[in-house]
Design a protein that fits this description.
Layout: E1 2-7, E2 10-16, E3 21-24, E4 32-34, E5 43-45, H1 52-60, H2 65-71, H3 77-92
Antiparallel strand pairs: 1-2, 2-3, 4-5
Length: 105
């Protein structure tokens, strides 16, 4: 669950899971939108029908930013930074717990 609040004039997003609260950076807040009415709530770039996942997959497959900017004229260079910052915040709070293998009974 995400909760947004303002502290000292800055937008802060709190991500809650069953064990912890993570304060996500505000770097991506102005550009990454989670709206149930757009792409069934997937994170999108500025509410457009361009998902963060699409941008990240393209970049990870070696598609140059210049090609994405030409293909999607509404994208801006800052959108790439916002997608990466959003992904970094999600990975930062990710935890891996061993299940089964190698655990004594």
């Amino acid at each position: 669950m995400l909760m947004r609040s303002t502290v000292s004039g800055k937008l802060i997003v709190w991500a809650f899971d069953s064990r912890e609260v993570t304060v996500m950076s505000e770097d991506w807040q102005e550009r990454i939108v989670l709206d149930p009415a757009v792409l069934t709530g997937k994170p999108t770039v500025r509410g457009m029908r361009i998902s963060v996942e699409h941008v990240l997959r393209a970049l990870s497959n070696g598609v140059p930013q210049s090609e994405l900017l030409a293909e999607y004229p509404d994208l801006e260079p800052e959108d790439f930074h916002a997608c990466l910052a959003y992904a970094a915040d999600l990975v930062e709070s990710e935890r891996v717990y061993p299940v089964g293998a190698g655990v004594p009974a």
